[in-house]
Amino acid sequence: MGKRSSRVNPVIANSFLLTPLTFYLGLGAVLFSLGAIGVLIRKNVIVILMCIELMLNGVNLTFIALGRHFQDLDTHIFTVMIMAVAAAEASIGLAIVVSIFRNFLSTNVADANELRG
């Protein structure tokens, strides 16, 4: 049985450092924009929830890239908080989706307009 090296490949480890910050910021902006567009134009509640998750992941990517660039660990705290909010959003949102589906037999937002007060 061969001995496995516990060292990380330096090419892979340095690839994050070699990629410019603007790439990660641009990717985060693209993810956030796609999520925002999806929230605005889609009518299915499940797709809207997935688009919100996409927006939160875009923000997370931006925080991590900026934290890595400025060597600031505080951004990791914000990232963990955003992940907790995303988990809560997913659990509560899916419960709402199940409730909407039971009442209207559809996950379309337009069908659930009777929820207005």
How does the helix and strand content classify structurally? mainly alpha
- Tell me the strand percentage band: under 5%
Provide the gyration radius in Å.
Answer: 20 Å
Low-confidence stretches: none
Q: How far is it from the N-terminal to the C-terminal residue, by CA? A: 68 Å
What's the count of strands?
A: 0
Major β-sheet annotation? none
- What overall form do the CA principal axes indicate? elongated
Summarize the helix and strand pattern as letters.
Answer: HHHH
Helical content stands at: over 70%
Number of helices: 4
Mean pLDDT: 85
Task: Give an account of the 3D structure.
- This protein has 4 helices and no strands.
- The protein is mostly helical.
- The chain is 74% helix and 0% strand.
- The protein starts with 9 loop residues before the first helix and ends in a 13-residue tail after the last helix.
- The longest helix is centred in the last third of the chain and has 31 residues, at 74-104.
